[in-house]
Specification:
This protein has 237 residues and is an alpha/beta fold. The protein has one domain: Rossmann fold (3-Layer(aba) Sandwich), CATH 3.40.50. It contains 10 helices and 7 strands. It has helices at 36-44, 46-57, 63-72, 79-87, 95-104, 117-126, 163-167, 185-190, 199-207, 217-226, and strands spanning 22-25, 109-116, 135-144, 147-151, 175-179, 193-196, 212-213. The chain has a 7-stranded mixed sheet with strand order 4-3-2-1-5-6-7. Helix 2 packs antiparallel against helix 3 (63-72) and helix 4 packs parallel to helix 6 (117-126). The longest helix has 12 residues, at 46-57.
Length: 237
């Protein structure tokens, strides 16, 4: 399920023949300056986080298994605390500037997160940027009994949010992505242009996938300004 500004229950991605590709952006540690999902689980379920997070980062445990275990272990009473924590997280510099540039090019800006959708919505709304996001694909959680229930329409393969499947909803190319960690590997593999930072750089070095390093969204905007990305026909094997 892709959440759009006009219809939070939208089931398909908006497309337009006028668009010049699509910009896909991770949320935790990418839009936010810190790894928000990691910080949240370390606060809400610290003992379980200490067991599971190292296995996730080492890729000994799938995202589909590990993230679900972490979320389903959270007390239902912690939902408000989760949103309060998200509301305290600063965004990485240059986000609004990049969004404005992407919009001016006719590209949809799509947030694809392996984290909690309510946290994504909270931060974007606080920054006044929700309406600049074409769609959000993320994990939905809701209190059920004493714990959280996980709802993920994009669950598939090894991921709780199968990011490549979200990308496939947008036929226009090129696919440009920005990410930072283990949840972004498959999205980076499929993308035509990859902006990587932090752990994602190491993962991509291991598989030989080219990327452009970055730290702020100003870096991405300035790179794209200087190196225009043109539409292309591309089929992934």
């Amino acid at each position: 399920m892709l959440s759009t500004p006009a219809n939070s229950a939208g089931s398909s991605a908006p497309t337009s023949p006028k668009t010049l590709g699509v910009f896909f952006c991770d949320f935790d540690g990418t839009i936010t300056a810190e790894e928000t999902f990691v910080g949240m689980v370390e606060r809400v379920v610290p003992d379980l986080a200490a067991q599971i997070l190292p296995d996730l980062f080492a890729r000994r445990l799938s995202l589909r298994q590990g993230v679900r275990q972490l979320l389903e272990a959270m007390p239902a009473a912690a939902f408000t605390r989760i949103l309060d924590y998200a509301d305290q997280q600063p965004v990485r510099p240059g986000l609004a500037a990049l969004m404005a540039w992407v919009e001016a090019q006719g590209m949809p800006f799509v947030v694809v997160s392996g984290g909690v959708q309510a946290m994504v919505e909270q931060v974007l709304a606080r920054e006044g940027l929700r309406q600049r996001v074409a769609a959000i694909a993320a994990v939905q959680v809701q209190p059920k009994g004493d714990f959280m229930e996980v709802i993920s329409p994009w669950e598939g393969g090894t991921e709780l949010v199968e990011k490549a499947a979200v990308m496939a909803q947008y036929p226009q190319r090129p696919w440009i992505m920005a990410g930072d960690s283990v949840t972004d590997i498959n999205m980076a593999i499929q993308a035509d242009v990859v902006f990587a930072r932090d752990r994602l750089q190491g993962y991509l070095d291991q598989i030989g996938k080219p990327y452009i390093p970055w730290e702020t969204f100003f870096d991405i905007r300035d790179y794209l300004r200087q190196s225009p990305i043109r539409p292309m026909s591309h089929t992934n094997g």
